[in-house]
């Protein structure tokens, strides 16, 4: 049996797509095949026709490169719907138009029921009608492919959203005197999780440890590393109950888990004493927490700047102790909150701008404060921040 050959390339049709429609004509009758080719030629449709005289030859074609099949139902090696079934088994999404005789419309209807896009009666269709039927069949298949791709994307998005929700922190703090509230806005559009992370854990002696961090970069790599670091931090704190060795060990995890050598992470860790009268602060290149007490706002900023995780080998992060008043709140945040514009030129909010904003919002309750801070920062910025934003408030009631 001779292989299929390209027998016609019709003149271009300006209304058609830029690439010609590739048609596989499966027809054993030379006269009928010539008629189909001439009809398409006269129509001006931009097509490329490949002829196969038997089903066996047609199935040897690269069906993934075929846009539409014109299929005769009476072939030497297949009769009736058998040819359609075999082609659809080879490629389920193949667009097939069946060709029937004057007295055989019933089989055409059966073919549509079995998966053909349409049926055409030989001798009852002109060139324009044939070209239109081919284009409709191709576009219906493309529309169905697009719908399926959108459905797959929707399912993936829902799956990712469920995964990201499951990875968001649920702080393990049982002290009824402490209220923890947070606002989290990932910079990635439509994402739930970014490279910023936060968490809090209360250990057996009543000490409360809290952390906030910011992985450099954006996208899923930063988000994955952020989740890894948060879980590692929680495990280290719960496993040891001590704060001193957490950051050096976390740096080892950081270097092992980061996807790129240039990635680093800034981090602030606080440890609140069981009597809630003091706090120790460890900063790894991160903005300092703010201590809020009455009208007073104090940045708990060390004199010496310590490096982020992933920058300096064998780095150490010293703890600084601060006394806490009777009532207090500690605000931890990532730099995405202070790097937004202020609406005046190219100026940024900065740490001083954040303190001024907090003073203006101190009448808010704790949940309202962190929400208002992020919303106000976005308002000044003229819209959502490009970077991830996290604000985490630990308050003694």
UniProtKB/TrEMBL annotation:
SMART domains registered for this protein in UniProt: PP2C_SIG, REC
Residues modified to 4-aspartylphosphate: 72
MF GO annotations: phosphatase activity
GO BP term, pick one: phosphorelay signal transduction system
Response regulatory domain boundaries: 22-137
Key words, A-Z: Hydrolase, Phosphoprotein
Organism: Solirubrobacter ginsenosidimutans
Superkingdom in the source lineage: Bacteria
Official protein name in the record: SpoIIE family protein phosphatase
Family annotation (InterPro entries): Bact_Sigma-Reg, CheY-like_superfamily, PPM-type-like_dom_sf, PPM-type_phosphatase-like_dom, Sig_transdc_resp-reg_receiver
PANTHER family attached to this UniProt entry: STAGE II SPORULATION PROTEIN E, STAGE II SPORULATION PROTEIN E-RELATED
SUPFAM superfamilies, per database record: CheY-like
């Amino acid at each position: 049996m001779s292989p299929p050959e390209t027998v016609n390339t019709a003149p271009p049709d300006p209304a058609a797509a830029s690439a010609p429609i590739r048609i596989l004509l499966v027809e054993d009758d030379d006269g009928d095949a010539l008629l189909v080719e001439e009809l398409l030629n006269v129509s001006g449709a931009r097509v490329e026709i490949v002829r196969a005289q038997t089903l066996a030859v047609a199935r040897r074609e690269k069906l993934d490169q075929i846009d539409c099949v014109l299929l005769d139902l009476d072939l030497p090696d297949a009769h009736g719907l058998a040819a359609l079934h075999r082609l659809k088994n080879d490629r389920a999404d193949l667009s097939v138009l069946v060709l029937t005789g004057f007295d055989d419309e019933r089989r055409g209807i059966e073919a549509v029921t079995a998966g053909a896009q349409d049926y055409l009666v030989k001798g009852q269709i002109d060139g324009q009608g044939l070209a239109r039927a081919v284009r409709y069949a191709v576009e219906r298949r493309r529309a169905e492919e697009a719908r399926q791709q959108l459905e797959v994307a929707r399912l993936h998005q829902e799956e990712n959203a469920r995964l990201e929700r499951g990875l968001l922190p649920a702080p393990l703090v049982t002290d009824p005197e402490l209220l923890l509230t947070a606002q989290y806005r990932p910079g990635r559009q439509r994402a739930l999780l970014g490279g910023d992370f936060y968490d809090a854990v209360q250990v057996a002696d009543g000490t409360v440890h809290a952390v906030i961090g910011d992985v450099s970069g954006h996208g899923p790599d930063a988000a994955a590393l952020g989740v890894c670091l948060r879980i590692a931090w929680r495990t280290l704190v719960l496993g040891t109950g001590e704060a001193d060795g957490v950051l050096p060990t976390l740096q080892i995890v950081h270097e092992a888990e980061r996807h790129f050598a240039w990635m680093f992470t800034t981090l602030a860790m606080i440890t609140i004493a069981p009597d809630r009268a003091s706090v120790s602060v460890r900063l790894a290149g991160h903005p300092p927490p703010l201590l809020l007490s009455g009208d007073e706002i104090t940045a708990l900023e060390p004199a010496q700047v310590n490096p982020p995780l992933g920058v300096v080998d064998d780095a150490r992060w010293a703890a600084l102790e601060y006394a806490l008043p009777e009532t207090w709140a500690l605000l931890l945040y990532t730099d995405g909150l202070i790097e937004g514009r202020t609406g005046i030129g190219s100026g940024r909010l900065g740490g001083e701008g954040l303190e001024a904003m907090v003073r203006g919002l101190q009448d808010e309750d704790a949940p309202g404060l962190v929400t208002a801070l992020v919303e106000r920062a976005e308002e000044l910025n003229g819209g959502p921040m490009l970077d991830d934003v996290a604000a985490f408030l630990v308050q003694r009631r």
